[in-house]
# Entry
Amino acid sequence: MTMSGAAQSIEGRGGFLGIPHRTAAALRHLALRGTAVVYLSLLVALPVAAVLTKGFGDGLDSFESAMARPGAWAAIRLTLWTSTIAAGINAVMGTMLAWVLVRYRFPARRLLSTIVDLPLAIPTLVTGLMILALYGPNSPIGRFFDDLGIRIVFTPIAIVIALCTVSLPLVVRSVQPVLQELDPAEEEAAATLGAGPRTTFRRIVFPAIRSAVVAGTLLTFSRSLGEIGSVILVSGNRTGKTLTAPVFIFQLTSQFRASEAAAVATLLFAISFVLVLVTTRILRTSGART
Amino acid sequence: MSTVAKRGGRSGHAGILAACLVYVGLLLVLPLIGIVWTALKPGFHIVTDTLSAPDVQHALLLTVQIAVITVAVTTFFGVIVAWVLVRQRFHGRSFLNALVDLPFALSPVTVGLACFVLFAPGGWLAPFFDARGIRINFALPSMVLVTIFICIPFTIREVVPVLEEIGVDEEDASRTLGASVWHTFRKVSLPNIRWAIAYGVALSTARSIGEIGAVLIVSGLIQGRTETATLYIFRATEERQTPQAYVVALLLAAISIVLLLAIEMFHRRQERAMSSA
Amino acid sequence: MSTPIVVEGLTKRFGSFEAVTDVTFTAPAGAITALLGPSGSGKSTVLRMIAGLEEPTAGRIVMGGEELTVKSVQERRVGFVFQHYALFRHMSVADNVAFGLRVRKEAKDVREARVRDLLELVHLAPFADRYPDQLSGGQRQRVALARALAPQPKVLLLDEPFGALDAKVRQDLRRWLDELHRELGVTSLLVTHDQEEALELANQVVVMHEGRVEQVGSPKEIYDDPVTAFVAGFVGSANVLHGEVVDGHVRLGSFRLPGAGHLEEGTAAAAFVRPHDVRVSSGDGDTTAVVERIASLGWLSRVTLRLPDGDVVVAHVPHDELHGATEGAEVGLDLRNAKAFGLADGVPPAQDADPVG
# Structure
C-alpha cells in the first residue's frame, strides 16, 4: 500500500504549515475560546450590564421616581402574587402530569405529551388570544361565567390562567426524566413492608423528585415574573388593578423613561436571582440529589 | 414501571388522570379550538383576505427574516460555545456557563430595554453606529439582536450534554487514524450531535417566530416596516381588527404545531442516538 | 515492517501531581511488550504519550530512529485500540475500518480490498454493514483492532483492550490476539493490569508502579527473579514473611531463609515465597507448621498453615506430595526460592497470599 504524496510530504516536518503542531493546537483552542467569550460577552453580558447601569447608575433616583408612579407598587405586588399562584398550581398539576405520563398507560398518551409541550412552541401572544377567544365576552363560556357574575378576562384571574398556560411544560419536563430514572425496586420494597401507595409516594417517591419539582417551580415563577405576551392582551392593563410589572416596564419605555424602566427591570431580575440562590442553598443543605 | 401504579384502587388513578385531562383541556385544548372557531367564524374568505393584505405579508416576511438570521447565528456560535464549555478547562468557565443561562432569567421586556438603552442616544454603542448612519433601534438590526439574545441558550443547552456523554474517545481514535482536527469534527463529532443541533434549531425557530415582548420595545411598531407577525397581531387587536388578528394568530399556531412535531421528533432521535453507546 | 519503540526519561505532570516519572524502556521490533501495573501506575498515560494523545512534560520517544515527540497524533502513524472500543457509532463496521484509509485518500479499490481482508482476518466479514450498537463487546473490539490495523501502522498500541469484556470473552480474545500477532508481527505495546494476560501474551514485560518502572524483563524473569518487593508481590501470588537480616539470611523467628546476602546486616527485611515453592517435606524441612485448612482444587490443594511464630502461609501442593497431611496435623515445611527485600524497598505489609494464581 502506498501513501499519497501529500501525506508523505507533511510527515517528518512535524507541523501544520511549518508551525509546530503543539502551537497550532494551542492557537486553535484560544481562537475557539475567544470566539465563545466575545459572543457571550457582547450578546449577553453587555446588554445585562447596560440595564443594570441604566437603572442604578444614578443611585436610587430612577428607582424612586419609577416606584412613585401610580400603580407601580401595585404592579409589583400583582406580578408577585399571580406568579406565586401560577407556580403553586403548576407545581401540583405539573407533577401530576409527569406522574401520569411516566407511570400510566392509556390511549393517546403520546398525544397528551405533545399537547403539554405546546406552550414551548406557540407564541405567547397567540396564547393570550386563545384565552380571550375562549373566556372573552364573545364566547359562550365567557358569557356563561358573565351570567354568574364572574368576570374572567381583564381580571387577575385571566392573568393567572395565562401564566399557568405558558409555563405548563416547565415543571412537567423537569420532573419527568427524574421519575423515569427511579428504580421501581425501592417502591416494591416499600410495598412488601406494608406501605400503601400514598405513603410510598410521600416517603419514597417524593423525596427523590423533590429537587426536580422545586427547580421546575422556580423556573415557572421566574418565567411568570417576566411574562408579557399572553398577559398584555388578557389583563386589560388597568393601572393599579391589572397592570403587571412587565407591562409597566413596557409603558415606561414607551414614554422614553428608560432609566425608570431599567430600575424596575433590575428589581424583577434581582428577585429571580435571589430566589435561585436561596433555593440552591436550601436544596444543597437538605442534601437533596440534584 | 412501578407496581404501585397497579395497586391502590382504580378510582384513585382515574381521579388523577381526570384532573390532568381537565387541566390540560381547559388551558390548552379548548382555547385552541376557540381560536380556530373564532378565526373561521366570518367564513373561510377571511383567511385569504387577510393573508393577501400587503402589511400582513410584510409582517410574515419580516418574521421569517428575523428567524432565519437568528437561527443561523445562534446555531453556529452555539456549537462553538458548547464545544468550548465541554472540551476546554479554563478560569471563568463557570461564569461563561452562567451567562448561557442568563437569557432564561430575564423578561423579554428587559431584553428589549437593554437593546434600546445600548443603541439609543447616550447609549454605550450609540456613537459607533450613529457616526456611520446605521440605524439599530426601530429597525431590523435591533429586532434581530434581541431575538438572538433570547435564543442563545437553546442550541448550547442541547449540545452540551451530548458532547459530555459521548466523550473524547471517538475523537481520539479519529486522530490516531490520521484525521486532522477539522476532519474529525466534520466526520465524527458533528454526526454525533446532529440531532441535538436539529432540536435546538426547531426550538429557536419557534421562539423567534413567537417573540413579542422584546420586539415590542425596539421595533417602534412602524407598520409595514418593523412589524413582525406577532406585532401585527398586537396592533390589529388594539385597533379592533380582531378577525384579521385571529387569522394570523391561527396561522402562527399552525406553524408552531408543525414545529412542535419536529421538536418532538428531533428530541426522540437525540435520545435514541445517545442511548446506543 | 515493524520498528522498535524507544522511550527515554518520559515524565508527565498534571499540575502538582506527577503521574509518570522518568520512564525508560525499549519495546523491541515485532514483539509484544506489556506495560503491567495496578490502576494509577501511569501505564495508560505512558501509552497515550507514545500515541501523542498526551504531551510529555519531559523525555522523548523514538520510533525506528525517528523522533516522535515533536509530531502530532496524526503524523505518528500508530494504531491505537481503546478500552471502550471508541468505534464511530454512526458509521457501519466497514466504514469504521475504512476510516483511516479514507483519511489518507487511498484509492477506492485498494481501500475496499483492504477492508475486506481485515474483516476476514478478524472473522467479521458478514458484519460489514452492521452498526456498532448491533455488535457484542468482543465483536466491537475486533472491529476496533481491524480499524487500527487498516492504515498499516508501524506500531500497535492497546490500552487495556479486554478490560471491558467478561472473563470468557477476554480469554478468547487474548488467544486470538496472540495468533494475530504471530501472523502480522507488528510491534505492539499492551497496557494491562491483568498479570495473567501480560505473562501469557507478552515477549517482554515492563512492570510499573506509581509512575515508575519497577522492572523490565521477560515474563519468566519478572516472575522468577523480581528485583523489587513490589514486583515480587504484584506478579504472581506470594507469601510475605517479615524478619531480620542475619548473616546473609532472613531470620524468621524459629528458622531462617537464605537469599539476603545483598542486604545490610541487622536491618528489617521481608522474604517472598511463592505458594508452589512451599513444600510439605517427608522429613524435617526448614520449619514445622500446623495445617489449618486443606482446600482441594482439583489436581492440587491449597493448604493454609500456621508457622510457630504465628504467621500464616499458603501452599499450593499437588495431591501426591501431601504426604498424608491432614487438618490439625503438624508437618515439616520446605520454603524454596525465597526472594528477600529490605524494607527500604517499600515492602508492602503482610499480604494476603491467598488468591489461586
Q: What stands out?
A: Chain B has a mean pLDDT of 90. Chain B is about 80% helix and 0% strand. Chain B touches chain A through 89 residues (CB under 8 Å).
